[in-house]
Structures are given as C-alpha cells and as structure tokens.
Amino acid sequence: MASPRVKVARDKADLVQKLLDTRGTTGVFQTYADIVIFAASLGMRHHQKIPLQEISQSEPAPISLEVFISRGYEWVINLIAISDTQDTQILATDNSEIEVQRIAILEEYANGGLAKLREELRGAVDYTERLLLILSAERFPIHNKEEEFDLSRFL
C-alpha cells in the first residue's frame, strides 16, 4: 500500500511556495513538510482548524507521510491528533483509517495556520523578520488588560 499523502489547500499553495527557501526568494523553510508542520502547530495554538475545500495538485503536490517521518515530525502529528480528539486510539498504528484521520486533522490545522500566516504576513517583504516577530509574540505575550483604578488603596 502506498504511503498516505498530506495535502495543501489550493488557495494556500502560493503562500506555501513563497515560504519555501529557494534561490532568489524570501522563504525561510527548507521543505514543504517544514511549512506544513509549522502551520499546523500555529493553527493548533490558535484553535484554527479549517477543512480543505480544493486541494493543490501542482506545487506543492501532496507530500508523502514518509517525508514527515524522515524529518522527525511523527511525534508532532501524533500530539496534534491526540490533542484534537482527546482519544488515545488515534495513535493506533495498525489501522489505516485512523492514519487517514490523523492526516486529515494535520491538514485542517495546517490550513488554519496558513490562513493565520497569510493574515500576519500580508504586506511583508521579508518573511524571516515577520516570522521572528510572530514567534517572539507567542513566546512573550503582552497582556493589555486595562485595570480599573482602585481607590480603596488610599483608605
């Protein structure tokens, strides 16, 4: 049986191509698998899970699951799946239907993360700088809670 493939939405394919580090571009990721995992993690973080409508058939073509496994991303896929379903049965390796379900969860969170990235990167010339700002904001969130002035302190 052929290895399952991870698909990218057609409307996000252009963004994914721009994020890929090729000669003469401002991309920052080495492979499409890196982009998908980053986007899925971002989508999971922001609870953005968007089902794929149309699938990109050209660039990026569906990516073999073996690419993700060879890059060490199997644990990320499993964490996203178990976090989404809250069911340990999603980790079963002997059932091809469950494997397809894990991939679908990854694709939906990646699609949500790519939507968030498209919004955040709009108008950016250098994706590297903007991605560093996004990561910095995630690591060191600024809480802008406006507190009421409490007069009881002066009593």
TrEMBL record:
Cross-referenced InterPro entries, in alphabetical order? Answer: DNA_S_mod_dnd_assoc_4 (IPR023983)
Q: What is this protein called?
A: Dnd system-associated protein 4
Q: Which organism is it from?
A: Hyella patelloides LEGE 07179
